Each structure stands twice: as structure tokens, then as C-alpha cells.
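Archive maintenance. Older records in this collection stored only the sequence; we are now back-filling the structure field for every entry so that each record is complete. The fields below show one back-filled record exactly as it appears after the update. Entries are processed alphabetically, and VOC family protein is next in the queue.

ARCHIVE ENTRY
Title: VOC family protein
Organism field: Cohnella endophytica
Length field: 118
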Amino acid sequence: MRPIVSSKLLGVMLYAKDLKRASNWYSDKLGFQITDYNFDDFVELAIEGTYVMHLFRDLDLVPITRAVFSFNTYNIEHAYIALKNNGVEVDSLETYGDHKSFSFKDCEGNQLMISQYD
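Back-filled structure field:
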């Protein structure tokens, strides 16, 4: 039987109380571009012109405490050092059988992850 969804994600939906601050954080710290926005409702973010995620406003936000997805990187050590040097709260860089990962918090307190697979 063919799966009802494909293996390609269309994008990630994440929530923030302060969309302007959060979208600037994602731009400054991770290199996202803001491609569309209404700071009372949503911000659309892209990497190298490709849509990646939406931030939606949620005044009652309870930050996620465990990463529910992982960003990919081509150089995990560089990503780790760059975020740490930029004042981002990062957990330790872990090595597993086929990949390395670390978790970090965005400016809203959401726990996120970056991974690099061999």
C-alpha cells in the first residue's frame, strides 16, 4: 500500500509570543530570510530562497521542552561554535553511530536541534 504522505516535509510550524523578535532571532542566529509576514499573525521563513518554516503568534505559548524536529547542517562543529559564540543556549554536542547532534533554545525558549549525518 502506498503511504498517504510523502517523505518530504513541506515546512515546520512553530509558535512564538513575539513574532518580530523571534523572526529576527531566526534571521540573525540561523540565517533565515523573512519572505512574508504579518507580525500580528505569522512570519514565513526561508533558507537560500526555499521555504522552511512558519512562525505563528501564540500569546499563551508554552515553549516546547524537547526538540520535535532537527535542522540539517553540513558542518556541525561550526554550527555549534557559531551559536554558542552568538549567546545561544546550547546543550553539549553528542556523537551517535551515524550522526552528531546538539539541542539549543530559541529566544522564545523552544528546544530545537541541529544534526549532521555522515
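Update note: The longest strand covers residues 50-57. The chain has two helices and eight strands.
Entry marked complete.
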